[in-house]
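To illustrate the input format used throughout this study, we show a single complete record. The first block contains the structure-token representation of the backbone; no residue identities are included at this stage. The design step must infer an amino acid for every position from geometry alone.
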């Protein structure tokens, strides 16, 4: 399959004057009021998505294998630009991203009462073009203040300006490269009109080690204390009975009681004044009972 999509552009809400230092770092111009402002708006982004795959069944439909490979080319990607000195943000069109990967899903029922499942997926979404803010354009031959090559260059308020880029070629989007999900469910025949069953689900994702744009010291605005996605392991168990559309079961979620930090941020990236972070993780180990009815 091949498909094309887009999102319309929009306008930015202004940020406070306390953000002026970050806006200067980005090379944004000074307005008629003597202050620097974020760009008035951002344009549409678009993508082409290409996918090839197959859905196949074997062994009298007891084995099903679905697989695919994909490439997504995303241009003028709309992304939030975080201003770490003031904790505000605006939206900009940040270069080009290519996402490549694939997945395979296997469902196998060796006997009528046992179902096995395995899904393995890989994704690599990276910027293929460095990007700048405002009127500046990325120039790989521009010399930065530290003597390295590659910077945003142009004329701002009538003066030649060199500024760091917002994202660098090779930076990644947030996402675990590898993801593995396995499941097993077994039923035990009818018992007094009820069908007892047991099920286990296990999910594993590896840590994201490639640099995000907000972690890369080559970029204009970054906070190297913010981590990428960590390794995650999640085991879930369930046992219950099914009958006449009813399903009553006991469950245990996050059986391993893992506590990875899936998201972490802070309002102002200043080591001397702001050491308070907020984050999000997995729900702790949870045990309970649930009942459903399907009609």
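Output of the design step:
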């Amino acid at each position: 399959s091949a498909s094309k999509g887009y999102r319309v552009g929009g306008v930015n809400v202004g940020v406070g004057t306390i953000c002026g230092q970050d806006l200067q770092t980005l090379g944004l111009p000074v307005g008629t009021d003597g202050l620097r402002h974020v760009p008035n708006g951002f344009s549409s982004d678009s993508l082409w998505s290409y996918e090839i795959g197959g859905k196949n069944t074997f062994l009298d439909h007891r084995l099903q294998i679905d697989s695919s490979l994909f490439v997504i080319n995303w241009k003028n990607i709309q992304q939030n630009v975080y201003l770490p000195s003031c904790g505000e943000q605006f939206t900009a069109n940040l270069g080009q991203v290519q996402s490549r990967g694939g997945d395979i899903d296997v469902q196998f029922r060796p006997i009528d009462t046992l179902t096995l499942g395995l899904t393995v997926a890989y994704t690599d979404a990276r910027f293929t073009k460095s990007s700048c803010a405002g009127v500046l354009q990325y120039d790989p031959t521009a010399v930065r203040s530290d003597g390295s090559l590659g910077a945003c260059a142009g004329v701002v308020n009538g003066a030649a300006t060199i500024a760091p880029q917002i994202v660098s070629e090779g930076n990644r989007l947030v996402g675990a490269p590898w993801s593995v999900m396995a499941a097993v469910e077994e039923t035990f025949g009818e018992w007094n009109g009820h069908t007892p069953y047991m099920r286990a689900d296990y999910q594993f994702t590896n840590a994201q080690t490639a640099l995000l744009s907000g972690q890369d010291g080559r970029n204009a605005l970054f906070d190297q204390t913010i981590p990428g996605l960590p390794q995650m392991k999640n085991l879930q168990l369930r046992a219950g009975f099914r009958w006449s559309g009813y399903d009553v079961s006991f469950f245990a979620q996050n059986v391993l009681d893992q506590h990875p930090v899936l998201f972490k941020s802070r309002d102002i990236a200043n080591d001397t004044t702001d050491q308070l972070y907020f984050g999000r993780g997995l729900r702790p180990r949870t045990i309970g009972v649930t009942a459903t009815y399907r009609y």
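Structural context for interpreting the output: The mean pLDDT is 91. Residues 20-25 form the longest helix (6 residues).
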